[in-house]
Amino acid sequence: MSSKKAIEFDNVDELLCDYGCGIIAKFKFSNGKVCCSESENSCIRISKRKHDVLEIENEEGLLCEYGCGQEAKYKLYSGKLCCSKHANGCPVLKKKRNPIVEEIITDRLCDLGCGQIAKFRYGNGKFYCSSNSVKCPTSRLKLSISRQIYVGENHPRYGKHCTDETKSKISMSNIEWNKNNTPIWLGRHHKEESKKLIGLRPFKRVQSIESRQRKREKMLNGHSDYMNSISRNPEKIKRFKERQRKWMLENGRYVKSFISNPSRDEIKLRDMVKEHFPDCEFQYPVLNYDLDVAIPEYKIAIEFDGYYHFDTEEHKEYYKMRQKRIEDEGWVFYRVTMFDKFPTSEEAKLKIESLIEEIGNKNEPTNER
Prior knowledge:
- It is a single chain.
- By secondary structure, the protein is an alpha+beta fold.
- Among the domains are: 1-49, no CATH class; 102-150, no CATH class; 256-362, Endonuclease, Chain A.
- The protein is built from ten helices and 13 strands.
- The strands form four sheets. A four-stranded mixed sheet has the order 10-11-12-13, with helices on both faces. It has a three-stranded antiparallel sheet with strand order 1-2-3, with no helix packed on it.
- Helix 9 links the parallel strand 12 (300-305) and strand 13 (332-337).
- The protein is extended.
């Protein structure tokens, strides 16, 4: 952001922006220049400069003008030749921005005023007590004070929000641009082969061979001894699991009430049942479980079984046991699984009506919840 103060003025003479964008000026800076925007960085010409980088064919072997000694590959918006797309990428400027820290022995005190003896000399010639100036007690004190002062309404940015124009600039700033000043991803799409590979990806994330090797080496290099050194009392673990089980039996439904991400197929099934049976309820509680869709009048449970119901033998056994317990309470299940052909609205209606007819033949419908 520019530090120059901008004053809005009446441009009677219709002066153009001094930065060369061709728009009539509206603001005047303290340096005497006029601009189309309140900040010079918001001027179209200035904002586009960062993308005006040309790749050149350096047949003459010209060197980088910033003095790194490498062959120039790009011509920057300033007209200078550089070895990198950005001037800050040149090794010389990198060195200036990140000064070398040299450990020294001296009686000189820290330049930040903490009173400690300096142990390090930076590339800018200053002496500090720490290899990182932020770790100096004086810097830490200033930082803690600023954190206490600039809190809530006292913060200079409190209540301020980015404009839509600024948000669009932020989103476009991370995009790589080509020579024609257009985003490189514009108009690109996945190939058909890529789409097929994406569709065939496994449901679970698979660890890479490198990740497994790193974990194995970590365990071989002493981490296994540390893990085995932790005392494990079987009785204590058993009591802990029992406490967890009791807590979930009492509060499991409350925890599950915060889960609001049903699958698309489940939502589709909900809408179909709701269309024909408006009295149906979603996430209906029975024992310590919740049914996807329920018609309490007839005790009919309608559920969609996705991938999670079949991924492990443990889950399969759990859902079998869950259904048996609910059926013992007098409920009848209508299940649609991920392996079945998804029913149409009419097919679902006929299936539920047939279940109601079967229940009616056995006994009268119940109104108890």
